C-alpha cells in the first residue's frame, strides 16, 4: 500500500525466518486488501465482481471489525466513502497487530514492528530500555515533535501531513479536513485499537482528543493547524525515559 515496513527482533538467537514470515504476511495482506491493486479482493468487491458469500475469511473479519468500529465511534470511522469500500484505515493497524501476535506465538519477547507509522512494540530494546518512538512534526517532516517510551503497547498517528486530506468527517454536508487538526497520535493496548480510534478521533476534529480521553487505557496527543498541542491527562507519563525491568519469569 505504498508504506514502509520495519521489523526488529531483539531476542537472542531469533532466526531470520521469523522476520521473513512477518514480511510474507504483510505481502499477503497487500495482495488481498490493497485498493491500489487491480487483483485485490477490495478492488474486485468495488467492481461488483464478488458476492458477499464468496468473500474470504479475512475480508469478512475486516468488514465485521469495521462495522464494530463504526458503531463504537458514532459513525466517525467508516470504510465507505461515496459508496467505495476502502478498509486501509483499519487494516494497517490490524495487520501490524496480527504480525506482533505471530511473533508472540513463537515465544519472542522483545521486538518492534512498524508499517507506515503504525507501531507495536514488545518488551525492551537492545539496551534493555523501553522502546523510543518519535512522533513526526506535522510542519517539519524531517523533525520529531515528541518522543514516547513504550513497551507491550501500540501507537498510531492520523494526520494530513503525509497523505493530504484523506480523512473526512462523515457527518459533514461535504467532505473536508478535520477542523484544523493536522496530527493526532493515540497510544493504546495494541496498535489495532490505537489506529482505528486515532482515525475516528481525527475525523471528529478538535473534539477528538476528548473522545480519546474518555477511552480507558488510551492516551492521545493532538496538534492543530496553529501548532498547538493538546494532550490527554496521562500522555505525559509516556514521555519519561526509564529502564525496563523484567522478572525472573520474563514478564515485562
What labels would you give this structure?
252 residues, alpha+beta, T-fold, seven-stranded antiparallel sheet, two-stranded antiparallel ribbon, 6 helices, 11 strands, 30% helix, globular, disordered C terminus
Describe the structure.
- The protein is α+β, with helices and mostly antiparallel strands.
- It has a single domain, classed as T-fold (Roll), CATH 3.10.520.
- Helix content is 30%, strand content 22%.
- The chain has six helices and eleven strands.
- It has a seven-stranded antiparallel β-sheet. It has a two-stranded antiparallel ribbon with strand order 2-3.
- Strand 4 and strand 5 form a beta hairpin.
- The chain is globular and about 55 Å long.
- The two termini are 33 Å apart.
Helix count?
Answer: 6
Number of domains: 1
Summarize the biggest pleated sheet.
7 strands, antiparallel
**What general outline do the C-alpha atoms trace?**
globular
Distance between the termini: 33 Å
Structural class: alpha+beta
Helix content: 25-40%
Q: Quick one: CATH superfamily?
A: ApbE-like domains
Please give the CATH class: Alpha Beta
Query: Which range does the strand content fall in?
Result: 15-25%
Q: At CATH's second level, what is the architecture?
A: Roll
| Series of H and E elements | EHHHEEHEEEEEEHHEE
| Unreliable residue runs | 247-252
**Whole-number mean pLDDT:** 89
CATH topology: T-fold
Amino acid at each position: 500500500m505504498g508504506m514502509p515496513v520495519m521489523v526488529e527482533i531483539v531476542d537472542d538467537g531469533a532466526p531470520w525466518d521469523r522476520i521473513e514470515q512477518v514480511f510474507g504476511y504483510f505481502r499477503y495482506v497487500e495482495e488481498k486488501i490493497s485498493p491500489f491493486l487491480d487483483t485485490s479482493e477490495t478492488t474486485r468487491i468495488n467492481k461488483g465482481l464478488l458476492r458477499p458469500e464468496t468473500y474470504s475469511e479475512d475480508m469478512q473479519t475486516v468488514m465485521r471489525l469495521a462495522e464494530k468500529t463504526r458503531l463504537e465511534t458514532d459513525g466517525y470511522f467508516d470504510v465507505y466513502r461515496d459508496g467505495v469500500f476502502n478498509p486501509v484505515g483499519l487494516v494497517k493497524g490490524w495487520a501490524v497487530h496480527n504480525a506482533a501476535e505471530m511473533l508472540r506465538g513463537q515465544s519472542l519477547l522483545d521486538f518492534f514492528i512498524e508499517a507506515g507509522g503504525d507501531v507495536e512494540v514488545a518488551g525492551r530494546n537492545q539496551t534493555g530500555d523501553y522502546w523510543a518512538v518519535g512522533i513526526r512534526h506535522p510542519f517539519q517532516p524531517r523533525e520529531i515533535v515528541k518522543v514516547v517510551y513504550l513497551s507491550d503497547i501500540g501507537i498510531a498517528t492520523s494526520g494530513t501531513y503525509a497523505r493530504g486530506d484523506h480523512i473526512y468527517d462523515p457527518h459533514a454536508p461535504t467532505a473536508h479536513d478535520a477542523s484544523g487538526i493536522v496530527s493526532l497520535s493515540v497510544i493504546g493496548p495494541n496498535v489495532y485499537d490505537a489506529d482505528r480510534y486515532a482515525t475516528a478521533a481525527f475525523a471528529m476534529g478538535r473534539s477528538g482528543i476528548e473522545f480519546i480521553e474518555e477511552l480507558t487505557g488510551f492516551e492521545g496527543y493532538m496538534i492543530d493547524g496553529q501548532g498547538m498541542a493538546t494532550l490527554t491527562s496521562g500522555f505525559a507519563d509516556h514521555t519519561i525515559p526509564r529502564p525496563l525491568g523484567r522478572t525472573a519469569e520474563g514478564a515485562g
